[in-house]
Amino acid sequence: MHAFWLSLVMIFIAELGDKTQLVALALATCYNSRVVLSGIFWATLAVHVFSAGIGWLMGGMLPTDWITFVAGISFIAFGFWTLRGDSLEEDEKVECKTGVNAFWLVFSTFFMAELGDKTMLSTISLATTNPFLPVWLGSTVGMVISDGLAVVVGKMLGKNLPEKAIGYGASIIFFAFGAWNMYEGGIHFSPLIWAAAVTVILLTGFFFLRKPSAFSDGQGN
């Protein structure tokens, strides 16, 4: 049960302010909330069976201490990702469509949005050091709870959500969890390995937190 609750909590946190949560909010403005959450549940279950499977296979191929150490680095990277926040690109914005099956529209939209997303990668990291089944189920339930909460609160408060405060809190948890994993896995590693890991973390932080250039935000010539 430990792996289930760990996965539930960590994916719940990872989903806060994530791109797929923004998709869930947008879909809930078009369709019934129960249909939206049902589509999200089954899409997440489908995506995360692959995520947990990939992580489980990776975890069986490498030494446990290295897996734990690298997983810690990845969670710190997710902390920077959360701190930066997500937004929907113009081609990712949801349009309300009539004359279609709402469930399958939500399922397909959310399935595609989740591929390569932070929560999918977080599930892979969790599955490298935890059993497959509880990670799969826990990550799915955590995602649905997070998106369900966002849908309810979003409908009540509109756009007046404390996104920055939520992002800061989630990032702190990711940083703490990642640091603990690094310590647990790399306690006997050499200073050279730790120096390389810290360099990777600093570069990751720079990548996620740097200000976008005029070219990258579409203002360049």
Instruction: Report Rg.
Output: 18 Å
List segments where confidence is low: pLDDT < 50 over at least 5 consecutive residues.
213-221
Overall, the morphology is globular
Largest sheet: none
Q: By helix and strand content, what is the structural category?
A: mainly alpha
Task: Please give the domain count.
Answer: 1
What's the helical proportion of residues?
A: over 70%
Description:
The structure is a single chain. With 221 residues, the chain is mainly alpha-helical. It has one domain. Helix content is 75%, strand content 0%. It has 9 helices and no strands. Residues 213-221 have low confidence and may be disordered.
Offer a few descriptive terms:
single chain, 221 residues, mainly alpha, 9 helices, globular, disordered C terminus
Q: Could you give a short description of this structure?
A:
This protein is mainly alpha-helical and 221 residues long. Helix content is 75%, strand content 0%. The chain has helices at 2-15, 19-28, 33-59, 64-84, 102-114, 118-129, 132-157, 163-186, 191-209.
Sequence-ordered SSE layout with sheet pairings:
Blueprint: H1 2-15, H2 19-28, H3 33-59, H4 64-84, H5 102-114, H6 118-129, H7 132-157, H8 163-186, H9 191-209
